[in-house]
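Request: Show me your protein:
***
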Amino acid sequence: MKMDEPKSLRSIEECKRRLSIINAPHVAPLSAFVERLRESMGDEYEIPYFDPLDGGTKADCLFLLEAPGPKAVASRFISRNNPDESAKNFFLLNKEAGIDRRRTVVWNIVPWYIGTGKKIRPANMKDIGDAESALRELSTLLPALHSVVLVGNKASSGKSRKIATNIFPNAHVSSVPHPSPLFVNNRPENRGVLLQKLREVASNLPPWSR
């Protein structure tokens, strides 16, 4: 299995390999941020790491989803390589839209798992408010940020958008539908709608030298 393909984090070996590089220079400050957050919140809060295959502190595009799902908790990463269909759609659609993952970072409005066992519940306004300070701290670790993309209805809600706009006043804030099978497979045209939105994200990004 290649390390960067849909669902590659179903491999325990690949999860371990990524854990071995969470202190690479481009992602070490973000890994330290996650560990500080875990310490301050307590052991009952499960907070996955940033994926070191993404851009880390060099990223100029931040994708903000709602909250980590069970697969992210299991792999220990917020990643487009997680073994679920939403992550697979996100991987493939970003690639098709021409957004290189090395210029992106993926996080959640609420960075800890909400729910019990394998069943996640929707984030509520209290969750979003409680997580605001963490998002504010994250903003200080992304000096190259140009665009913030809110993914899904909850992340794009009025309160979430207002928080993101206040925290990232110099970034271009936009929203895209969630890449879940519920959306993508609901109507034949929905995949194209999401792809077009991601192409708009790509067109709004500045020139990038790899």
Q: What stands out?
A: The radius of gyration is 16 Å.
